């Protein structure tokens, strides 16, 4: 069973409430993963079931995982800042975790509004010469917010029947980047009764370079 540890951290608008989850059996972590939750003004918290599924997935992969409540959520101070302040706060969390766990790669993951935050944080990190190890985006917020371009090995998962962020909007965002997306048949935005697919696909693809590499392996008979 993995161990959890609550923390508070000074953010751009006051104290941020968060939790760290450690790999099982006190194993040395292979990396750090940061998870970003859905929109604060529509009930999104770090305990959202998709965010928790992402946390559990990374813990099972051997990562130490950090989540925070965005501004105005739970015990986190401040008010919603339409993504800019939230990205700043995630950057603060990134700096804190890399200091706490030096030398480990950092993966970024998020759900819905959290995908907007993580794509922009990934852009900042790449520009600073410290790119994220990889991104996992579930229910990517295409056309809801101005998403940044993403690396080719990003793992994207979307529900077929997502009526909050229609699949066509995600495809329109990805088409110029030529990046594929995993579509879960019958899934809605919140992946009711479909959460297991998220863990299954991320676990399956984590050791690969993405869907393109998986397709190449299949074609070659590997």
From TrEMBL:
It comes from the Bacteria. Transmembrane segments: none annotated. GO terms for molecular function: hydrolase activity. Residues 23-123 form the Xaa-Pro dipeptidyl-peptidase-like domain. Keywords: Hydrolase. The keyword Transmembrane helix does not apply. Pfam families: Peptidase_S15. InterPro entries: AB_hydrolase_fold, Xaa-Pro-like_dom. This is Alpha/beta hydrolase. It comes from Duganella radicis.
């Amino acid at each position: 069973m993995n161990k959890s540890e609550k923390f508070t951290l000074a953010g751009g608008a006051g104290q941020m409430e968060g939790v760290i989850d450690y790999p099982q059996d006190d194993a040395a972590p292979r990396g750090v993963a940061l998870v970003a939750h859905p929109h604060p003004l529509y009930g999104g918290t770090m305990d959202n079931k998709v965010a928790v599924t992402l946390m559990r997935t990374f813990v099972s992969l051997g990562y130490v995982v950090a989540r925070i409540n965005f501004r105005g959520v739970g015990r986190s101070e401040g008010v919603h800042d339409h993504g800019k302040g939230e990205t700043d706060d995630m950057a603060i969390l990134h700096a804190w975790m890399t200091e706490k766990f030096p030398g480990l790669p950092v993966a970024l993951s998020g759900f819905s509004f959290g995908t907007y935050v993580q794509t922009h944080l990934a852009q900042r990190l790449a520009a600073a010469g410290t790119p994220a190890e990889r991104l996992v985006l579930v229910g990517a917020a295409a056309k809801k917010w101005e998403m940044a371009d993403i690396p080719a090995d990003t793992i994207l998962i979307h529900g077929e029947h997502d009526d909050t962020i229609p699949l066509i909007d995600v495809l329109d965002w990805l088409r110029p980047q030529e990046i594929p997306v995993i579509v879960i048949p019958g899934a809605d935005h919140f992946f009711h009764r479909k959460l297991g697919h998220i863990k299954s696909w991320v676990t399956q693809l984590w050791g690969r370079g993405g869907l393109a590499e998986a397709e190449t392996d299949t074609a070659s008979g590997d």
